[in-house]
Design a protein that fits this description.
Blueprint: E1 2-3, E2 6-7, E3 10-11, E4 15-16, H1 25-28
Antiparallel strand pairs: 1-4, 2-3
Length: 29
């Protein structure tokens, strides 16, 4: 699975995570 986040500064790099993995937004923001 590929995740991309958009911030006020623009787009962040893509994150590749394993299928079924839980994403904690506090880690990436």
């Amino acid at each position: 699975m590929v995740c991309a986040f958009i911030t006020s500064d623009g787009k962040t790099p893509l994150f590749f995570v394993d299928s079924g993995a839980r994403i904690n937004t506090e880690i990436y923001l």
